[in-house]
Design a protein that fits this description.
Blueprint (H helix, E strand, L loop, with lengths): L4 H20 L12 H15 L3 H13 L32 H14 L6 H15 L19 H7 L7 H9 L5 H8 L6 E3 L4 H6 L5 H8 L11 E3 L11 H7 L6 H4 L8 H9 L1 H16 L20
Antiparallel strand pairs: 1-2
Helix pairs in contact: 2-4, 2-5, 3-5, 8-14, 11-13, 13-14
């Protein structure tokens, strides 16, 4: 019989390789190199959300759309150039992603106190956490030490970011492709307790689907005509649109999911039980959401000598 040692060595090698990525990110990364980094980001986020409540959701979404495209590397922030096409014009992002000016402002402040130390990718991760907290949600400790990409991928942005039209099985697969479980997918979807959706992304649901609350459908139709108004927006959680809470899940139990993909989490399938739990247990949702955000933030970071620390988040050095 073959010795089990080679197999054991292979398993251990895989384990240590996976652990190495997380080990290279640390919660204390800037403690000595830029001790005021986190407080600077937090102050800016609180100010930005105070100016416009919607900005909190926009900053969370930036981090999500960054991490789902070749990892959490700040690629979503890169502008197009004559020789380079970034991710901003990808279908999920075009006329939709926002908050770039807030990130620019934070980066400028950090460059003023710690030149070329804090990465744009880390700014996105911390700003997402601070946005959730500012809107009444849970906190978590952000792992730090990501570096910034020198490239981006329009194709990956078009293919890897989950579409609002996905059914539960495809949603689960999309998150699984990034190393996230179905449980984590359902928890992360709770970020839709804040933010807005464009008419073009829920038009088919309100005009063609039957598993939708009649009053919600009527309300949404008033701001989303059948053929026009693609960019008109409506809150994903009409109950408490600017509070990070568990009303997103409560709404789903009443067929008040705005996006097709939202209502898939309570539609007679495998996600129903967890959605029901979150609808009545906000503490459980907060705990699971926080853990899932940490895991998402660890997707394929650039560390060590890979990538760079951009001086301007919109362009490579």
């Amino acid at each position: 019989m073959a010795s089990p040692k080679p197999l054991l060595c292979s398993v251990l090698a895989l384990f240590f390789a996976a652990s190495l990525v997380s080990a290279q990110l640390t919660t204390t990364f800037y403690d000595k190199s830029c001790p005021n980094a986190l407080s600077t980001i937090q102050t800016a986020v609180i100010s930005a959300v105070a100016r416009e409540n919607r900005m909190g959701a926009s900053l969370v979404r930036l981090h999500f759309h960054d991490c789902f495209v070749n990892g959490c590397d700040g690629s979503v922030l890169l502008d197009d150039t004559p020789t380079f096409t970034g991710e901003k014009t990808a279908t999920p992002n075009n006329n939709s992603l926002r908050g770039f000016d807030v990130i620019d402002s934070i980066k400028a402040k950090l460059e003023g106190i710690c030149p070329q130390v804090v990465s744009c990718a880390d700014i996105l991760a911390v700003a997402a956490r601070d946005s959730v907290v500012t809107l009444g949600g849970p906190t978590w400790v952000v792992n730090l030490g990501r570096r910034d990409s020198t490239t981006a991928s329009l194709d990956a942005a078009n293919n890897d970011i989950p579409a609002p039209t996905l059914d539960l099985s495809d949603l689960t697969k999309s998150f699984s492709n990034k190393g996230l479980t179905a449980t984590e997918m359902i928890a992360l979807s709770g970020a839709h307790t804040i933010g807005q959706a464009r008419c073009v992304n829920f038009r088919n649901r309100i005009y063609s689907e039957t598993n939708i609350d009649t009053s919600l459908g009527t309300s949404l139709k008033s701001n989303c005509p059948n053929t026009t108004g693609d960019n008109n927006i409506s809150p994903l959680d009409a109950s408490t649109p600017y509070a990070f809470d568990n009303f997103y899940y409560k709404n789903l139990l009443n067929k008040k999911g705005v996006l097709h993909s939202d209502q898939q989490l309570f539609n007679g399938g495998s996600a129903d039980s967890q959605t029901t739990t979150y609808s009545s247990n906000m503490a459980k949702f907060f705990t699971d959401f926080s853990a899932a955000m940490v895991k998402m933030g660890n997707i394929s970071p650039l560390t060590g000598s890979s990538g760079q620390i951009r001086k301007n988040c919109r362009k490579v050095n």
